[in-house]
Amino acid sequence: MNGSDRAQKSMKNISYALIGQISALLISFILRMVFVRSLGKDYLGIDSLFVSIVSMLSLAELGVGSAINYSLYRPISENNVERIKSLMFFYKNIYKKIGIAIFVIGISITPIIIKSAEGNINNIGIYFILFVINSGISYFYSYKKTLVIADQHRHITIIYRYSFYFIMVLIQLIILLVWKNYFLYLVIMLIFTFLENFFMSKKADQLYPYLKEKKISPLDKNIKKEILKNTYAMSFHKIGGVVVNSTDNIVITKFLGLSVVGMYSNYLLITNSLNMIFGQIFSSIIASIGNLGVEESKERVETTFNAVFFYCFFIVSFSTVMLYILLNPFIRIWVGSSYILNNTIVIFICINFFIVQIRRGVLTFRDALGLYWFDRYKPIIESVLNIFLSVFFVQILGLSGVLIGTILSMVLTSVWIEPYILYKHAFNKKPYHYFVKLAFYSSVTFIFAAIITVLKNKILLLELNNSLIEFMIILLVSVFTYIILFVAIFFRNAYLKKILKKMKVFNVGV
C-alpha cells in the first residue's frame, strides 16, 4: 500500500472519530448534568466507583486483543485469507473465555463491593452486577471489530458505536427526567452494549464473508507462540494501565468519601472525554503505522514519528492550557459552584492530563510496531509506585495527594522508559533529541498557560456578573492568544508549514 492510501484512510478514520467523539462529548455533558440533578452526588460517586472497578475486571483480557491486532497487519497486507481466518477463530475462543471469566469474577466479588460501598444507596449489589454483565457481554461479539480496525476501516466501527450511543443516551435522559431511576438507566446501558456489538459483528460478516466459513486451518504454532509472547508482555501493560487509571477513585472513596469522588468525577468526565477524543485520533492511525512498519524502512517510520509527535504536542498543549483556564468556569456554569475544586487541584489535574497525552505518539508507534515485550515490567513498577504514593500523599494533602502520586509514578517510569524503548528497538538510536523536544514543548505549554492566565484575570476584574458571557469572552481570548503565540514560535517549523499549506492559509514550500 502506498503512502497516499495510508494517509487517506488515516484521515478518514480520524475525521469520523473526531465528529463522533465530539458529538458524544456534548451529549455526555447534558447526560451528566441531568444525572447530577436527578440522582445527586452519592449516585454519581457510586457510578464512578463502579466504572473504575469494572475497568479493573477488564484485566481478564490481558492485552490479547492488541497482540492479535498486531498479528493481523502482515496477513492483511499480503491478503492471506487463511491466516486471517485462523487468527480470528483463535481470537473468538479466547474472548468467549474472557467474557465468562469477567462474569464469574464480578459476581464473586459482589459481596465485597456491597460491604465497601455501604451508605445511603439501596440495591448496590444489583447495580454492580448490571455493570459486570455490561462489561462481560461485549466479549462474545466484539472480537470481529478488531479485523475491521486492523484493515484500516475504523470509521465503520465508529459509525456503529456512536449511532447506538446517541440513541442510548436519549433514552437514559428520559428515564432520569421522568422516573429518576438508576436501575432502568443501567438496564438501557446493558441493552445497547449488546445491540452495538451484535450488529457490528453482523457487519463484519458482510465485509469479510470468509469469517462464516467452517473450514479453518489450525493456527501455525510459531504464530501462536508469538501471540502468546506478545499477550504475556501486553498483560503487564494492561494491568499497569488499569491500576494507574482505576485506583485513584478507589483511594479517594476510601480516604475522602463518595461525595469527593462525585465532585472529582465531573472533572474526570471532561478530561476523560478529551482522552477519548485523542484515543480515537491516535487509534485511527495505528493500523496505517502498522502497515508502514511492515512495508517501509526504519528511516521512513522515524520521519513519520517526528511529524506525529509535533502534531501530538500541538493538540495536547492547546488542550492542557484551555483546561487550566476554563475548567472551573465551565464547572460553575454546568453543575454549579458547589462542585468546584480549588485551583491547586486543577493544576495537578492539568499536569496529569499533559503527561498522559504527550506520550500518545510514542505509545501509538509502540503498539503499531509490536514493541510490547521490551518494557513489559515497566507498568507493574509504575502501578506499585502509583498506589503507594497516592495512599501516602492522600493522607497529607487530600485529593491533591492522589494526583501527585499518579504524576510522580509516571515521571519516574513511563515518561523516560517508553521513548527509550521506541528509539532503541524501532530506530536503533538514543532518544536524546526526543527528550530535548519534550522539555521544550513542556516549557512552552507552561509559559502559554501563564500568559493566558494573566489575561483571564484581567477579564475577571471586569466583574461582568454573567458567568456565561464571562466564560465566552475568556474562551475566545484564550484560543486567539494561544494560536498567535504558537504561530509566533513555530512559524519556521516544517510540519506546521505543511499543515498551513494544506489548509491554504498561505503558500509556502516544505
Automatic annotation (TrEMBL):
The chain crosses the membrane at residues 16-36, 48-73, 94-114, 126-143, 155-176, 182-200, 276-294, 306-327, 339-358, 434-455, 467-491. Keywords: Cell membrane, Membrane, Transmembrane, Transmembrane helix. The keyword Ubl conjugation does not apply. GO terms for cellular component: plasma membrane. InterPro entries: Poly_Biosynth_Transport (IPR050833). The keyword Chaperone does not apply. It is found in: Cell membrane. Its main location: membrane. It is a multi-pass membrane protein. PANTHER family: PSMA PROTEIN, PST FAMILY PREDICTED COLANIC ACID TRANSPORTER. This is Uncharacterized protein.
